[in-house]
C-alpha cells in the first residue's frame, strides 16, 4: 500500500528528504538526465512512488517548446450550447493538429479565476476561455503570460483577443421577430437583476430597444429572472409568469434551454404555441430543430466562433505577428424561424 | 515570420542541427538542466522557436511521476449522452483532484486506435475509453502499458477494467414496458445489420427476448436500421418505417436521440403519442424530461458509471492492489416512465 497523498501537495524537497539525496539529484532523475548512479536513481524513483509525487512541468520548461494542447474552459458540458461549442472547438483544433484539454468552471467565479492561474496552464500552449462570472473587479486576473482568447462580450476592455457576437443586436432582432408577428406582450426569461454587463444584461437591453423603437412600454412584470440558464429554471420562471396572471402573448428565452423549459410548461398547461403564446430562444442548439413544436431561435454562428477562436489562438501561440493589438471579432447571427413562432407556415427542418 | 511547421514533425535532431549543438545539449536545455552556457542555451531556444519544436514529454519521464490528468475518449460531445457523461466524469475526477483531457473519436475506428497509442497518452496518468467501433480484431490494441478503464460491454474479454450496463436486460425491460401497456407491434430504431457485438446488437437481442417470452413473433419489417444514433437518423428511420405501411403501435429507440428524432416525425405527421404510437428511448438524457411529450426511457446510472470508472482508474494509477484481476462492474438501470408511453397518467417531472 502506497502512502501517496492525493493532489500535488508533495514537493520535490520531500522526495529528496525521503530518498536521502539533494533536490538537484531528484530534478536530474525527473528530467531523465543520464549520468546518475543506478542505485541513486532507484532510491529517488521509490521515494517518488511512495509519496505520489507529481511531475511539475514548470512553465519555464514548457515555454521552450509546445505541447500541442490548448485549454478550453467552459461553464458546463451538460448545457448543450457548451457541449456543441466544445465539439466545434475540438474539430477546429483537430484540423490544425491540436488537442483540447477541457475544464469546467460550473459558473463559479473562484473556479474561473483558478482556470487563469491554475497549474494546468503549464500543460497547454494557450487557452480559449468562456467566463460567465468574472466581473470588472477581476480585470487584473486577465493579464496572463500565455496566449489566450476570450469568448463573450469584451466587457472589461480585456487584454486578450475576443470572439463574441453582438448580443444587443441579436436580442433586438429576436424581439423584432415577435413584434413583426403582431405580439405585444413579450415576456423575457433569464434576466439577471442588477447585472449591467454580461449576456443577460445585453440581451435584455436589446429587448428593451426593440420595444422602445416600436413605441411600446417595457413592463417589469414581464421580465422573468432566472439565475442559471437551464431547462429547469426556464420551466420555473414560465410557471411563475403564468401564475402571476400577467398578460403574455410571447416569450423570449435568453437561451434555448430556458425557452425549452418554457415550452415544456406551456405544453403541460395545454397552452397553444404559437397560437396563444409564441416562443423564441437563443443559441440554435440541435435540439431546437427537433422539439415539438420546433423552436425559433437565434443562431450565433457556432462554427465561426470556434474556428475564429482557434485561429486567433494559434496565431498568438506561433507569434505570427508579434505585438499585434488585441482583436475583437464579432460573429454573424441569424434568426432561424420555426414552428414556435411561425406555426404551420414554418419551413420543414 | 516563424518558419514553424504545424504538428509535431520537428525532431530534436533538427533542432540540434539548426543550433549547431549535440542532441544531448538540446535535451539538457529542454529539461531545464542548469549548467549550460547562456550563449548555447540561447542558440537552442532560438532554434526551438524557429522550428516550432514541440516538447516530447516521453513516457519514460512521466512514468516516474504523475501529471494529475486522465484522458476521456468519447465518440462525440454533440451527442447529449456523451456530453452529460463527460460532465459526470469531470465532476467525479475533480472531486479526486484530477483534470480530464477529452478526446473525440467521431466513432471512427482509426481514431479509436489512435487514442490507444497516441502521443497524448504521455500526458495522462490513465485513460477512460468508450470505444464504439473497435471489434474483436482490435483486441491486441487494448493491451496497453498504462492504466485504462473501458466503458461498454466487455466484448473482447479485454485486458482492462470495464464499467458497463446490462444492455440485454435493460432492452428487455424497455420492451416489456411496452408489452405491459398492451403494445404488440413494436418497431425498433437504431439496429445495425450484421453486427453481433456492441450496444445495437445487444439491445436488439433484449428486444427479441422480450417478444419471444411473450410468445410474439419478431417481424423483420419492424426493425429499423440507423447507423449513427443521432436525432436526424432517428427521424429518417421513423419516416421510412411509417412510409413502408407496416403496422406499428410502439417504437423503441435504441438511444434517446433516435427516439427524439422519431417523436419529431410523429408530431409532424399528427400521429398521437402515445395514443396511436407509444415511444421509449434509452439513456435518460436531460432533454427527455422536457420534450413534448416527455420521453419514457432507460436510465443507465450515468453518475454511477462515471464515479465507478474514475475510482477504478485511480486505483490502477495508485497501484492500490497491484496485480488485481480486471474487474467488470455492471451498473444498475431503471425504466423512467413518462408521457410518451404513459400519457396523462405519467408522473410530473
Automatic annotation (TrEMBL), chains A, B:
<dbReference type="Pfam" id="PF00356">
    <property type="entry name" value="LacI"/>
</dbReference>
<keyword id="KW-0804">Transcription</keyword>
<keyword id="KW-0238">DNA-binding</keyword>
<keyword id="KW-0805">Transcription regulation</keyword>
<protein>
    <submittedName>
        <fullName>LacI family transcriptional regulator</fullName>
    </submittedName>
</protein>
<dbReference type="InterPro" id="IPR010982">
    <property type="entry name" value="Lambda_DNA-bd_dom_sf"/>
</dbReference>
<dbReference type="Pfam" id="PF13377">
    <property type="entry name" value="Peripla_BP_3"/>
</dbReference>
<dbReference type="InterPro" id="IPR028082">
    <property type="entry name" value="Peripla_BP_I"/>
</dbReference>
<dbReference type="InterPro" id="IPR000843">
    <property type="entry name" value="HTH_LacI"/>
</dbReference>
<dbReference type="GO" id="GO:0000976">
    <property type="term" value="F:transcription cis-regulatory region binding"/>
</dbReference>
<dbReference type="InterPro" id="IPR046335">
    <property type="entry name" value="LacI/GalR-like_sensor"/>
</dbReference>
<dbReference type="GO" id="GO:0003700">
    <property type="term" value="F:DNA-binding transcription factor activity"/>
</dbReference>
<feature type="domain" description="HTH lacI-type">
    <location>
        <begin position="10"/>
        <end position="64"/>
    </location>
</feature>
Amino acid at each position: 500500500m502506497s502512502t501517496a497523498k492525493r493532489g500535488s501537495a508533495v514537493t520535490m524537497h520531500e522526495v529528496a528528504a525521503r530518498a536521502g539525496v539533494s533536490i538537484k539529484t531528484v530534478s536530474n532523475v525527473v528530467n531523465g538526465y543520464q549520468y546518475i548512479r543506478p542505485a541513486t536513481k532507484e532510491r529517488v524513483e521509490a521515494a517518488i512512488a511512495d509519496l505520489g509525487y507529481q511531475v511539475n512541468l514548470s512553465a519555464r520548461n514548457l515555454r521552450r517548446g509546445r505541447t500541442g494542447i490548448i485549454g478550453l474552459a467552459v461553464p458546463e458540458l451538460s448545457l448543450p450550447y457548451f457541449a456543441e461549442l466544445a465539439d466545434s472547438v475540438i474539430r477546429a483544433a483537430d484540423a490544425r493538429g491540436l488537442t483540447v484539454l477541457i475544464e469546467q468552471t460550473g459558473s463559479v467565479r473562484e473556479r474561473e479565476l483558478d482556470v487563469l492561474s491554475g497549474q494546468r496552464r503549464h500543460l497547454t500552449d494557450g487557452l480559449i476561455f468562456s467566463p460567465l462570472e468574472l466581473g470588472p473587479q477581476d480585470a487584473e486576473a486577465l493579464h496572463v503570460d500565455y496566449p489566450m482568447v476570450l469568448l463573450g462580450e469584451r466587457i472589461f476592455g480585456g487584454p486578450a483577443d475576443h470572439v463574441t457576437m453582438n448580443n444587443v443586436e441579436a436580442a433586438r432582432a429576436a424581439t423584432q421577430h415577435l413584434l413583426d408577428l403582431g405580439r405585444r406582450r413579450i415576456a423575457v426569461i433569464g434576466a439577471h437583476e442588477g447585472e449591467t454587463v454580461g449576456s443577460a444584461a445585453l440581451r435584455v437591453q436589446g429587448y428593451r430597444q426593440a420595444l422602445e423603437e416600436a413605441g411600446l412600454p417595457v413592463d417589469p412584470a414581464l421580465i422573468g429572472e432566472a439565475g442559471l440558464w437551464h431547462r429547469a429554471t426556464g420551466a420555473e420562471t414560465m410557471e411563475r409568469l403564468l401564475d402571476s396572471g400577467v398578460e403574455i402573448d410571447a416569450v423570449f428565452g435568453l437561451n434555448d434551454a430556458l425557452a425549452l423549459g418554457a415550452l415544456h410548461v406551456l405544453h403541460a398547461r395545454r397552452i397553444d404555441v404559437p397560437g396563444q403564446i409564441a416562443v423564441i430562444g437563443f443559441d440554435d442548439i440541435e435540439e431546437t430543430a427537433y422539439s415539438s413544436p420546433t423552436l425559433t431561435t437565434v443562431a450565433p454562428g457556432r462554427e465561426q466562433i470556434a474556428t475564429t477562436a482557434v485561429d486567433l489562438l494559434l496565431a498568438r501561440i506561433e507569434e505570427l505577428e508579434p505585438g499585434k493589438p488585441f482583436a475583437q471579432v464579432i460573429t454573424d447571427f441569424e434568426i432561424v424561424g420555426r414552428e414556435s413562432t411561425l406555426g404551420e407556415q414554418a419551413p420543414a427542418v
